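Table S4 entry, Glycerophosphoryl diester phosphodiesterase.
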Amino acid sequence: MKLTLKNLSMAIMMSTMVMGSGAMAADNNEKIVIAHRGASGYLPEHTLPAKAMAYAQGADYLEQDLVMTKDDHLVVLHDHYLDRVTDVADRFPDRARKDGRYYAI
């Protein structure tokens, strides 16, 4: 597994974007709000606008999903299937696996 400094830095940055306010909430025994994929109920998941909205709504943490691609790059993606959130089937119809799905790995 090739993990470059750039990819590692990105992973750390994205996993700690809002940690300051979260640490404060934990010290006061208050409930902690974790925005999984940003404000994905309002905006497309894992987009910068979704992350900004989650921050504006008072989320203590932003929880990101990282998937390692076949060529050892980290990408922010909720699951291993590309066809759920991209137009990969339209762009590359001949690249589906035997089960008809498009995988990130």
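The chain has a mean pLDDT of 80.
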